[in-house]
Amino acid sequence: MNYSFYYWGPYLHMMRIEKEVCDELFKRGLKLRAAKKNKKGFNKYSHNIRLAGQLKEEYSYPTDKWFIKRFQKYVNSYIEGYRRWIGNLSYSPKAEFKNMWINFQRQYEWNPLHTHTQCTHSFVLYLQIPPEIKKERESFIAETKDAGTISFHHGEKREFYADSHNFFPEVGQLFMFPSSLKHMVSPFRSNVERVSVAGNFVLYD
Q1: φ, ψ for residue 96, nearest 5 deg
Q2: DSSP letter at 63?
Q3: Backbone angles phi, psi at 26, to 5 degrees
Q4: Model's pTM, two decimal places?
Q5: What is the pLDDT of residue 40?
Q6: Which residues sit opposite 37 in a β-bridge?
Q7: Which neighbouring-strand residues pair with 5?
Q8: Which residues, 6 or more positions from 105, have their beta carbon under 8 angstroms from its beta carbon?
Q9: pLDDT, tens digit, for every residue of 56-85?
Q10: Which residue of 14, 23, 51, 197 is 20 to 30 Å from 172, comparing CA positions?
């Protein structure tokens, strides 16, 4: 029997990023972390106050032409995928990079369900994932193995609805998505540190 099915909801895009880009972002992120603190004991690059995450260490990257130049091809990949997804190959928006920060997520820290504002799209890239988190996840007795997962949620949970997607990320994976798409990051119990980079950009005609 012949049949058709139709895509629905937000467009979520995943791609793999070159190791040298990940390594350079990690190196630059460690420099931000090591920056001198002010008289109040705060790192001048600390970004926590502007974010939803319950993480102790999140640092904002300065606007950097090095990454913006490379970032364009990842945006182009997103646009190409979105064109095919909506069936409009003439769609050709421009992109404006907004901001970016590095997250050092440790034991029991998490990101609650949230969206991003003052942008149209967001992204998250994984730089370091200790194997202990995967072992912890696989050891779960419960059916839901959510330690260290990133989850995307859209619409209401109903029968025959695909209202969410959950991923256990890998190093070098980059997710791009509309900034209005709700997402969250689950905690893990292992005494290790996972590192990711997140940011925002705008697509416009």
Answers
A1: -125, 120
A2: P
A3: -65, -45
A4: 0.93
A5: 72
A6: 43
A7: none
A8: 53, 55, 185, 193, 194, 195, 196
A9: 999 999 977 888 888 999 999 999 999 999
A10: 51
Judged against a pLDDT cut of 70, whether residue 144 lies above it is answered with no
Q: What is the mean pLDDT of residues 85-110?
A: 95
Query: pLDDT: is 99 or 158 the higher one?
Result: 99
CA–CA distance, 24 with 92 (Å, rounded to integer): 30
As given in the structure block, the two tokens for residue 143 are 């059916």
What is the bridge-based pairing of β-strands 150-153 and 182-185? Answer: antiparallel
Those residues whose C-beta lies under 8 Å from the C-beta of residue 71, and which sit 6 or more positions away, are 97, 201
Q: Show Cβ contacts of residue 113 under 8 Å, excluding neighbours closer than 6 positions.
A: 153, 182, 183, 184
Residue with tokens 């001048």: 44
Q: What is the mean pLDDT of residues 86-102?
A: 94
The token pair that represents 130 in the structure block: 């200790």
Place of tokens 């798409």: 181
Helix (H), strand (E) counts: the chain: 3, 10
* C-alpha span between 138 and 133 (Å, rounded): 9
Q: How far apart are CA 106 and CA 197, in angstroms?
A: 14
Helix (H, G, I), strand (E, B) or coil at 15: strand
Determine the distance from the C-alpha atom of residue 134 to the mean position of all C-alpha atoms in its chain, rounded to a whole number.
18
Angle, alpha carbons 46-115-149 (nearest 5°): 80
